Amino acid sequence: MSFLALNLLFAGVPSLAALYLLRRRESSLGGGPPGLVFPAFFLGFIAVLPAAVVELGLRAMGGFSGGVAGDLLRAFLSAALVEEAMKLLAVRVFLYHRREFRRITDGIRATMAAGFGFAFFENIFYTFEDPLTLILRGLTSVPMHAVASGILGYHVGLSRFTYRPSYGRGILAAVLFHGLYDFFLFRGSGTAFLALPTLGAAAMVLRNLHRRAVLQDEREGRSRLPAGEGGIRRFGASAS
User: Fold this and answer.
1) Would you state the torsion angle of the CA atoms of residues 213, 222, 40, 58, taken in this order, to the nearest 10 degrees?
2) What are the pLDDT digits (tens) for 21-71?
3) What phi, psi does 174 have (nearest 5°)?
4) Which of 193, 206, 223, 236: disulfide with 214, CB 3.0–4.6 Å?
5) Distance between CA atoms of 116 and 14, rounded to whole angstroms?
6) What DSSP line would sit under 156-217, residue for residue?
Protein backbone atom coordinates (compact mmCIF):
# COMPACT_ATOMS: atom_id res chain seq x y z
CA MET A 1 0.00 0.00 0.00
CA SER A 2 1.39 3.42 -0.93
CA PHE A 3 2.10 6.05 1.71
CA LEU A 4 -0.65 8.24 0.21
CA ALA A 5 -3.24 5.46 0.50
CA LEU A 6 -2.08 4.65 4.03
CA ASN A 7 -2.30 8.27 5.10
CA LEU A 8 -5.75 8.69 3.58
CA LEU A 9 -6.85 5.55 5.40
CA PHE A 10 -5.51 6.86 8.73
CA ALA A 11 -7.19 10.22 8.17
CA GLY A 12 -10.38 9.11 6.47
CA VAL A 13 -11.64 6.26 8.63
CA PRO A 14 -11.45 8.02 12.04
CA SER A 15 -12.63 11.36 10.57
CA LEU A 16 -15.72 9.90 8.92
CA ALA A 17 -16.50 7.63 11.88
CA ALA A 18 -16.26 10.57 14.30
CA LEU A 19 -18.34 12.73 11.96
CA TYR A 20 -21.06 10.07 11.95
CA LEU A 21 -21.09 9.92 15.77
CA LEU A 22 -21.17 13.70 16.09
CA ARG A 23 -24.07 13.92 13.66
CA ARG A 24 -25.99 11.18 15.48
CA ARG A 25 -25.56 13.10 18.72
CA GLU A 26 -26.69 16.30 17.05
CA SER A 27 -29.77 14.59 15.59
CA SER A 28 -30.70 13.14 18.98
CA LEU A 29 -30.69 16.66 20.38
CA GLY A 30 -33.13 17.95 17.79
CA GLY A 31 -30.69 19.28 15.20
CA GLY A 32 -32.35 18.78 11.83
CA PRO A 33 -30.44 18.55 8.58
CA PRO A 34 -27.94 19.88 7.82
CA GLY A 35 -27.32 20.96 11.44
CA LEU A 36 -23.85 22.22 12.34
CA VAL A 37 -21.70 19.12 12.03
CA PHE A 38 -21.78 18.50 8.27
CA PRO A 39 -21.30 22.18 7.30
CA ALA A 40 -18.49 22.48 9.87
CA PHE A 41 -16.72 19.41 8.47
CA PHE A 42 -16.92 20.85 4.96
CA LEU A 43 -15.69 24.26 6.12
CA GLY A 44 -12.76 22.64 7.93
CA PHE A 45 -11.94 20.67 4.80
CA ILE A 46 -11.77 23.74 2.56
CA ALA A 47 -10.04 25.84 5.26
CA VAL A 48 -6.88 23.86 4.48
CA LEU A 49 -6.51 25.81 1.23
CA PRO A 50 -6.30 29.37 2.63
CA ALA A 51 -4.24 28.06 5.55
CA ALA A 52 -1.77 26.52 3.08
CA VAL A 53 -1.55 29.80 1.16
CA VAL A 54 -0.78 31.75 4.34
CA GLU A 55 1.76 29.18 5.52
CA LEU A 56 3.53 29.21 2.15
CA GLY A 57 3.62 33.00 2.28
CA LEU A 58 5.17 32.95 5.74
CA ARG A 59 7.79 30.46 4.63
CA ALA A 60 8.59 32.59 1.58
CA MET A 61 9.27 35.53 3.92
CA GLY A 62 11.94 33.47 5.67
CA GLY A 63 12.50 32.77 9.35
CA PHE A 64 11.87 29.02 9.16
CA SER A 65 15.44 27.85 8.95
CA GLY A 66 16.50 24.56 10.49
CA GLY A 67 17.16 23.92 14.14
CA VAL A 68 15.04 24.27 17.23
CA ALA A 69 14.16 27.95 16.63
CA GLY A 70 13.01 27.27 13.09
CA ASP A 71 10.90 24.30 14.16
CA LEU A 72 9.31 26.36 16.97
CA LEU A 73 8.32 29.11 14.54
CA ARG A 74 7.04 26.62 12.03
CA ALA A 75 5.06 24.69 14.65
CA PHE A 76 3.49 27.54 16.62
CA LEU A 77 3.17 30.29 14.01
CA SER A 78 3.01 28.72 10.57
CA ALA A 79 1.07 25.62 11.60
CA ALA A 80 -0.86 25.96 14.87
CA LEU A 81 -1.79 29.65 14.86
CA VAL A 82 -2.68 29.85 11.18
CA GLU A 83 -4.67 26.60 11.18
CA GLU A 84 -6.63 27.25 14.38
CA ALA A 85 -7.35 30.81 13.24
CA MET A 86 -8.75 29.53 9.94
CA LYS A 87 -11.01 27.04 11.70
CA LEU A 88 -12.19 29.75 14.11
CA LEU A 89 -12.87 32.10 11.20
CA ALA A 90 -14.87 29.46 9.34
CA VAL A 91 -17.11 28.65 12.32
CA ARG A 92 -17.42 32.28 13.44
CA VAL A 93 -18.40 33.61 10.01
CA PHE A 94 -20.61 30.83 8.67
CA LEU A 95 -22.09 28.96 11.67
CA TYR A 96 -22.07 31.28 14.68
CA HIS A 97 -25.53 32.78 14.11
CA ARG A 98 -27.30 29.69 12.77
CA ARG A 99 -30.44 28.72 14.67
CA GLU A 100 -28.97 25.25 15.27
CA PHE A 101 -26.27 26.83 17.47
CA ARG A 102 -28.23 26.55 20.73
CA ARG A 103 -25.70 25.55 23.39
CA ILE A 104 -22.13 26.13 24.45
CA THR A 105 -21.61 22.45 23.71
CA ASP A 106 -22.67 23.11 20.11
CA GLY A 107 -19.59 25.30 19.81
CA ILE A 108 -17.45 22.34 20.89
CA ARG A 109 -19.19 20.00 18.48
CA ALA A 110 -18.97 22.35 15.51
CA THR A 111 -15.29 23.15 15.89
CA MET A 112 -14.45 19.48 16.46
CA ALA A 113 -16.17 18.66 13.17
CA ALA A 114 -14.18 21.41 11.48
CA GLY A 115 -11.03 19.89 12.96
CA PHE A 116 -11.91 16.48 11.52
CA GLY A 117 -12.44 18.01 8.09
CA PHE A 118 -9.18 19.93 8.26
CA ALA A 119 -7.16 16.88 9.35
CA PHE A 120 -8.73 14.70 6.66
CA PHE A 121 -7.44 17.02 3.91
CA GLU A 122 -4.19 18.07 5.58
CA ASN A 123 -2.85 14.53 5.92
CA ILE A 124 -2.41 14.38 2.15
CA PHE A 125 0.36 16.99 2.44
CA TYR A 126 2.41 14.85 4.83
CA THR A 127 2.60 11.80 2.60
CA PHE A 128 6.30 12.22 1.88
CA GLU A 129 7.64 12.41 5.43
CA ASP A 130 9.65 9.56 6.93
CA PRO A 131 7.57 6.44 7.64
CA LEU A 132 7.72 6.73 11.45
CA THR A 133 6.46 10.32 11.45
CA LEU A 134 3.90 9.45 8.77
CA ILE A 135 2.39 6.63 10.83
CA LEU A 136 2.48 8.62 14.09
CA ARG A 137 0.91 11.66 12.42
CA GLY A 138 -1.62 9.52 10.61
CA LEU A 139 -2.80 7.92 13.85
CA THR A 140 -2.80 11.08 15.98
CA SER A 141 -3.31 14.17 13.79
CA VAL A 142 -7.05 13.60 13.41
CA PRO A 143 -7.75 13.49 17.17
CA MET A 144 -5.29 16.35 17.82
CA HIS A 145 -7.01 18.65 15.33
CA ALA A 146 -10.40 17.76 16.79
CA VAL A 147 -9.30 18.13 20.43
CA ALA A 148 -7.46 21.44 19.93
CA SER A 149 -10.39 22.81 17.94
CA GLY A 150 -12.83 21.51 20.57
CA ILE A 151 -10.97 23.50 23.24
CA LEU A 152 -11.32 26.55 21.01
CA GLY A 153 -14.98 25.65 20.46
CA TYR A 154 -15.77 25.90 24.16
CA HIS A 155 -14.72 29.54 24.04
CA VAL A 156 -16.69 30.09 20.82
CA GLY A 157 -19.81 28.76 22.53
CA LEU A 158 -19.10 30.75 25.68
CA SER A 159 -18.77 33.93 23.64
CA ARG A 160 -22.00 33.13 21.78
CA PHE A 161 -24.11 32.90 24.93
CA THR A 162 -22.40 35.15 27.46
CA TYR A 163 -21.65 37.97 24.98
CA ARG A 164 -18.16 38.22 26.46
CA PRO A 165 -15.75 37.25 23.69
CA SER A 166 -13.10 34.83 24.91
CA TYR A 167 -11.60 33.90 21.55
CA GLY A 168 -8.16 35.01 22.73
CA ARG A 169 -8.06 32.45 25.52
CA GLY A 170 -9.43 29.78 23.19
CA ILE A 171 -6.86 30.45 20.48
CA LEU A 172 -4.05 30.56 23.07
CA ALA A 173 -4.96 27.17 24.52
CA ALA A 174 -5.54 25.54 21.12
CA VAL A 175 -2.27 26.90 19.71
CA LEU A 176 -0.34 25.79 22.80
CA PHE A 177 -1.34 22.14 22.44
CA HIS A 178 -1.36 22.11 18.64
CA GLY A 179 2.03 23.84 18.48
CA LEU A 180 3.66 21.49 20.97
CA TYR A 181 2.30 18.50 19.10
CA ASP A 182 3.67 19.74 15.76
CA PHE A 183 7.00 20.77 17.28
CA PHE A 184 7.63 17.29 18.64
CA LEU A 185 6.74 15.74 15.28
CA PHE A 186 8.96 18.21 13.42
CA ARG A 187 11.91 17.23 15.62
CA GLY A 188 11.36 13.60 14.62
CA SER A 189 12.94 10.40 15.94
CA GLY A 190 12.31 9.70 19.62
CA THR A 191 11.12 13.24 20.27
CA ALA A 192 8.10 12.60 18.04
CA PHE A 193 6.64 10.26 20.67
CA LEU A 194 6.18 13.24 23.02
CA ALA A 195 3.27 14.14 20.76
CA LEU A 196 1.31 11.35 22.47
CA PRO A 197 1.27 12.75 26.05
CA THR A 198 0.61 16.19 24.52
CA LEU A 199 -2.50 14.79 22.87
CA GLY A 200 -3.51 13.11 26.13
CA ALA A 201 -3.17 16.35 28.10
CA ALA A 202 -5.21 18.25 25.52
CA ALA A 203 -7.93 15.59 25.65
CA MET A 204 -8.14 15.94 29.44
CA VAL A 205 -8.52 19.71 29.14
CA LEU A 206 -11.29 19.29 26.57
CA ARG A 207 -13.03 16.73 28.77
CA ASN A 208 -13.09 19.19 31.67
CA LEU A 209 -14.27 22.06 29.45
CA HIS A 210 -17.04 19.88 28.06
CA ARG A 211 -18.26 19.01 31.55
CA ARG A 212 -18.22 22.69 32.44
CA ALA A 213 -20.16 23.54 29.28
CA VAL A 214 -22.79 20.89 30.05
CA LEU A 215 -23.32 22.33 33.53
CA GLN A 216 -23.53 25.87 32.18
CA ASP A 217 -26.05 24.86 29.52
CA GLU A 218 -28.20 22.99 32.02
CA ARG A 219 -28.04 25.77 34.62
CA GLU A 220 -29.16 28.36 32.08
CA GLY A 221 -31.83 26.20 30.43
CA ARG A 222 -30.05 25.55 27.14
CA SER A 223 -30.30 21.77 27.58
CA ARG A 224 -34.01 22.06 26.81
CA LEU A 225 -35.14 21.58 23.24
CA PRO A 226 -37.60 24.02 21.70
CA ALA A 227 -41.23 22.89 21.73
CA GLY A 228 -42.02 20.39 18.99
CA GLU A 229 -38.46 19.08 18.71
CA GLY A 230 -38.53 16.05 20.95
CA GLY A 231 -39.29 17.46 24.38
CA ILE A 232 -36.60 17.76 27.01
CA ARG A 233 -33.29 15.98 26.70
CA ARG A 234 -30.25 16.14 28.90
CA PHE A 235 -26.98 16.66 27.07
CA GLY A 236 -24.95 15.89 30.14
CA ALA A 237 -25.30 12.17 29.68
CA SER A 238 -23.39 12.21 26.41
CA ALA A 239 -20.16 13.57 25.00
CA SER A 240 -19.69 15.83 22.02
Assistant:
1) -50
2) 777 776 766 655 467 888 999 999 999 999 999 988 988 887 677 789 889
3) -65, -45
4) 236
5) 8
6) HHHHHHHS---HHHHHHHHHHHHHHHHHHHHH-GGGGGGHHHHHHHHHHHHHHHHHHHHHHH
